[in-house]
Amino acid sequence: MVWARTKLLIWDYIFEPVKDIKVSYSGPHPEKFYKKTKDIIKTVFNVPDAYLQEKNYNWEKGKDVDKFEIDWEVNKILDTFSYITVELTLRGFSSGGEGKAEIRIRPRLITEYPQDTAWQKSIVYEMVRRFWHKRYYHRKRMEYLNFAKELIVSFETSIKNYADSLKEGKEQ
After folding, report:
1. Integer CA distances (angstroms), 104 to 91, 98, 123, 127, 154, in order
2. How far is 144 from 79, CA to CA, in rounded Å?
3. To bridge 56 with a disulfide, which of 23, 71, 126, 170 should be the other Cys (CB 3.0-4.6 Å)?
4. What pLDDT shows up at residue 122?
5. Alpha-carbon gap, residue 62 to 80, rounded angstroms
6. Where on the phi/psi map is residue 29: left (φ > 0), alpha (ψ -120 to 50), or beta?
7. DSSP letter string over 100-117?
8. Do residues 68 and 54 touch, judged by C-beta distance below 8 A?
9. pLDDT of amino acid 2
10. Quick one: pLDDT at residue 18?
11. Model-level pTM?
């Protein structure tokens, strides 16, 4: 991530056409997805705790029903200019050991170019940066895009496998 006051941002959605990935679960103990999802995020994305931010945590315990909604943001830094951002939402309810859970995944690849200094704002710099980006860096960004797709598919598969193990009663 570039730490600059002003910057040029290039967003690439990981999957085209743009879509949110949803994994739905209905069965025993959906509340266990909270801890397991966090573990899978750390394992699949290989990020330290500082790059996994819990944006929202709402867990309502009632007499018969537990309702929960948790939002995370994961930042996987790839190099000086590019990183993958994944927004995750887990929501669901549990009543008497049974319930539903849904995980929404919104991934994107972001490239940032700083534009703070007079040199970085000049037309000459912009021409050189654009040439460098088109000639060399674009290929690297496409590699990052494929890497991000692999990460997201791996994450989705891990969540589905955990859901299957919960249904079969073989949870980990």
Report:
1. 9, 20, 41, 39, 15
2. 10
3. 71
4. 85
5. 47
6. left
7. EEEEEEEEEEEEEEE--S
8. no
9. 54
10. 74
11. 0.86
Q: In the numeric block, which tokens belong to residue 65?
A: 């029903």
Q: Name which of 33, 90, 22 is nearest 57 in CA terms.
A: 90
143's tokens: 């590699």
Pick from 148, 156, 5: nearest CA to 83: 148
Q: What is the largest CA-CA distance in the chain?
A: 66
> What string of pLDDT tens digits covers the 172 residues of the chain?
555 577 788 888 888 887 788 999 998 989 889 999 999 999 999 998 889 999 999 999 988 889 999 999 999 999 999 999 999 999 999 988 899 999 999 999 999 888 888 888 888 988 988 898 888 999 999 999 999 999 999 999 999 999 999 888 766 5
Place of tokens 């750390």: 42
> 103: which 2 tokens?
């995980």
Q: What would the two tokens of residue 107 be?
A: 């991934």
DSSP string, 38-100: HHHHHHHH---GGGEEEEEEEEEE-SSEEEEEEEEEEEEE-SSSEEEEEEEEEEEEEETTEEE
How many angstroms separate the CA atoms of 136 and 127, rounded? 14
